[in-house]
Design goal:
Length: 437
């Protein structure tokens, strides 16, 4: 499947700063408002090192994604790169992992946001408020994205700015409230604690692959995609380390027992600042949903354009040129998951599903570079791509190894089912298989 056919009718309207804002918005989600406490429980004052390690791993993956994206900038992002490197079967499995994991996460974040809204209301109204919030937020974001990628990107840019305001206040105000004695390690970390800390820290970094699903609508993608990834991930890594250090410096040992660490740290300074952090968490969830609903339906759109999902998902709106059927389907599924109340057990699997996708994405970068594929002008041509590929793949395999046996088996089931589904569709639609190949 040629990329110009997959992306036919789309408008390239996203520049590097819009793409970088999308990455920041989707990666800096609600997790950073809660994870510092869990990291401190596992590693104590050494918790910032978990962010450094995971930033290095994600940085290697980002280099690979930047290289591949500069060569194959198409709808579906890493899915399109994997398809060009390894063919439709591997791409279908990778695309399934991507959109399935994303819609689970979307439902979970929407449910969490609904719980925040419902918690401020009297008990008799909480159930209704939860349902209304889920439908209003996901439905509203879906309607905005019906209006085209530029409109959706404007919402993402605005949400990114708004969500960063409370974090910026936390960093600026918190620096003056740090106590050096709070950096004395009073307990020993364990190997189990290290495993947990690395998984939690990695959870806060994943998400760039979702934003890249809109690569078919990026201006000058060979330059914009690498630049956006580097800008956003360097900023995120520095921000996370600063947040962890400030929270530790203010709360000390009590950080390990805090479920809302940023809010609890600001409560030491002012109750109003605590309220601001809670509002910031809600805004962060909303912003995450905005980025996800802007980008994730493009995976379904790309798969449909390639003939391996119902073709109706590959239709574009006649006026706005948006994949409105894919957006509608994705939003309906996310609402159903958010209201089901069964997402908690699947949340870890959703994050774990990203690891094999990253492995395939790193491998595709090497294969595309080795073949000299470049369909959007001069590619990145990163000098140490081989080292980045090895380090990125090794890091993701270690991440999978840190999961429980049941989680690894669940991941295997998803991969097996998606592979069987592709083979069955290939038998039923031989013409599609020939076209995709």
């Amino acid at each position: 499947m040629e990329e110009n056919r997959r992306d036919a009718g789309l408008v390239r309207a996203l520049g590097p700063w819009s793409l970088a804002a999308g990455v920041v918005n989707i990666v800096v989600g609600a997790g950073i408002f809660a994870v510092p406490g869990a990291l401190a429980e596992s590693l104590g004052v050494y918790a910032p090192l978990a962010f450094v390690v995971c930033a290095a791993a994600i940085g290697a993956v980002a280099v690979c994604f930047a290289e591949a994206g500069s060569r194959i900038p198409t709808s579906g992002g890493v899915y399109g790169c994997i398809e060009a490197a390894f063919g439709p079967f591997t791409a279908y499995v990778a695309g399934t992992l991507l959109w399935f994991g994303n819609v689970l996460a979307c439902g979970g974040v929407a449910a969490a946001l609904a719980d925040v809204v419902a918690s401020v209301l009297p008990p008799p109204y909480q159930a209704l408020a939860r349902v209304a919030t889920v439908i209003a937020v996901i439905g509203g974001l879906g309607i905005v994205n019906f209006g085209g990628v530029a409109r959706g990107a404007k919402l993402v840019n605005a949400a990114t700015l708004v969500k960063l305001i409370p974090i910026a206040i936390f960093v600026a105000v918190g620096c003056s409230a740090i106590h050096g004695t709070n950096f004395i390690q009073n307990s020993q970390s364990t190997a189990a604690g290290l495993d947990r800390a690395l998984i939690l820290a990695m959870f806060t970094f994943v998400g760039m692959e979702t934003t890249l699903c809109a690569s078919g609508e990026v201006i000058r993608p060979a330059r914009s995609i690498p630049r956006a990834l580097m800008i956003s991930l360097v900023f995120i890594a520095l921000l996370y380390v600063a947040i962890q250090l400030i929270a530790q410096g203010i709360l000390g040992d009590s950080l390990a027992h805090s479920r809302v660490p940023l809010a609890d740290a600001m409560a030491r300074i002012s109750p109003l600042l605590r309220a601001l952090m809670l509002v910031g968490a809600a805004v962060s969830m909303f912003g995450w949903l905005g980025s996800d609903i802007l980008c994730s339906p493009r995976i379904l759109f790309a798969l449909a354009r390639d003939g391996v999902l119902p073709r109706v998902l590959g239709r574009l709106h006649s006026r706005f040129r948006s994949p409105y059927f894919a957006i509608a389907f994705y939003c309906i599924l996310a609402v159903a998951l958010a209201l089901s109340g069964t997402f908690a057990e699947l949340a870890v699997l959703s994050t774990l599903a990203i690891a094999p996708l990253y492995v395939a994405g790193c491998a595709s970068a090497w294969r595309l570079a080795h073949r000299g594929v470049a369909r959007a002008g001069a590619p990145l041509n990163f000098r140490w791509l081989g080292a980045a590929v090895v380090f990125g793949i090794t890091s993701m395999l270690v991440l999978i190894g840190l999961a429980s046996r049941a989680e690894i088996m669940g991941l295997g089931v998803i991969i097996l089912v998606s592979g069987v589904a592709y083979l069955l569709q290939s038998r039923l639609r031989p013409a599609v298989g020939e076209t995709a190949g």
